[in-house]
Amino acid sequence: MVAISEVTNNNNNNNNKVASSNSTQHGANRTAAHTHIKGLGLDSQGVAKSVEGGFVGQIAAREACGVIVDLIKAKKMSGKAILLAGGPSTGKTALALAISQELGPKVPFCPLVGSELYSAEVKKTEALMENFRRAIGLRIKETKEVYEGEVTELTPEDAENPLGGYGKTISHVIIGLKSAKGTKTLRLDPTIYESIQREKVNVGDVIYIESNTGAVKRVGRSDAYATEFDLETEEYVPLPKGEVHKKKEIVQDVTLHDLDVANARPQGGQDVVSMMGQLLKPKKTEITEKLRQEVNKVVAKYIDQGVAELVPGVLFIDEVNMLDIEIFTYLNRALESNIAPIVVLASNRGMTTVRGTEDIVSPHGIPPDLIDRLLIVRTLPYNKDEIRTIIERRSKVEGLELTNESLDFLADLGVATSLRYALQLLSPAGILAQTFGRNEIAVSDIEEAKTLFLDAKRSTKILETTKNYL
Ligand SMILES: Nc1ncnc2c1ncn2[C@@H]1O[C@H](COP(=O)(O)OP(=O)(O)OP(=O)(O)O)[C@@H](O)[C@H]1O
Ligand SMILES: [Mg+2]
């Protein structure tokens, strides 16, 4: 039993002085390959706008992905498989990322690269199954007794360390919660303080604490603070309705893999799956096929009772030609089971020998019987204008300025080599411009960056002409 006691004397309730530490992370300048991609950029009819959501062109593929997103949301897509096929740097990985952004955080999206399935310790089919189950969500609804409100005060109270020494320990935590109908001050066990810290709770956040387990969940930031911090990643929520202490329907989103883990090692992960974690008799075991089937049975029962709902997500496998014939066979079967996510594959290969076979040559290195089950979405190479726009957008994200001539120059370079190479040159060129004390990247900077860093074609040529180079 966890100790939560209400403090009736509400004197220090106005004590709002506790510094709400501004935890704004200064990571805004970090950019990764796809930082500029923000969704598929479709309108409400599912028609792609030419430059939207960071996406430029590739209209047909984007609209096809939009249809996929709709089908997933309508739960009509499970067990289907899609292949994004197209040349290098035509935006396949970016499309998959955009699909996951469109699905929102509640639908599981599990990305992996073909080669990740090979490990000396875990069987490859086992690794694939694990990822399958990471991509299937379960929404569980439970009614629980909770304390919910906006945090008005958060004061850990120290005690001398009973074992002596210099260290202080925390004897209890005083937390003030405010809801639409009232306020309460609670005195909590130090163990609950740990979960408060884990959830990174600050004054001004809306949280709830389960009375029975003491599990703490941060719901979001109170919208009273919305103007103060303008973080895009922050979810603002209204002040909770009703009393602080009440019964609340709690919706938890977990994946089947979470349940497997929770049941394999019942000691760990208690806060995720308070109910589902103790379904099976506690035994310490690995995740085996048998355990999975038991979990499935219980899940099926809860779905029948209306307590839980299945949310099939997406399993994205990039570089699918890295999979071998054994995995493909397994994949075929897994797709036909009654709980399956939608599987999105991506490949930039043409006719390739299927890995693990001697002589089966097949498109993308995918065996014919799997190809037959795929919906294929094609990505097309970009023309100069599209490359130019992509580079322009990208430079904005990286905070770089380009003259018109250098944009044209880079776009031409992108056509001659590849979009990715042109994008790669942006940041080195930016640094070169800076060292010459210029804000704008000039053509000369790009030319210099180009001599410093080879593209694939030139480097191949050098290797071919100078044998024994390496
Ligand atoms: N239509 C687009 N609009 C904006 N940016 C794009 C677009 N297509 C690709 N990009 C960007 O170009 C770069 C290369 O694209 P991406 O990595 O998605 O290519 P890919 O098709 O996965 O290539 P590969 O086959 O080599 O894996 C990324 O930085 C990506 O964000
Ligand atoms: Mg890719």
Please tell me about this protein's structure.
It is built from 13 helices and 20 strands. With 470 residues, the protein is α/β, with parallel strands linked by helices. Strands 1, 6, 7, 8, 9, 10, 11, 12 and 13 form a nine-stranded mixed beta sheet that branches. Strands 5-14-15-4-18 form a five-stranded parallel beta sheet, sandwiched between helices. A hairpin with a 7-residue loop joins β6 (136-160) and β7 (168-179). α10 runs antiparallel to α11 (419-435) and α11 crosses α12 (443-452). The longest helix is centred in the C-terminal third of the chain and has 17 residues, at 419-435. The structure holds adenosine-5'-triphosphate (ATP) and magnesium ion (MG). Residues 33-34, 37, 54-58, 88-94, 348, 390, 419-420, 423 line the site of adenosine-5'-triphosphate. Its main location: nucleus. It is found in: Nucleus. Residues 78-381 form the AAA+ ATPase domain.
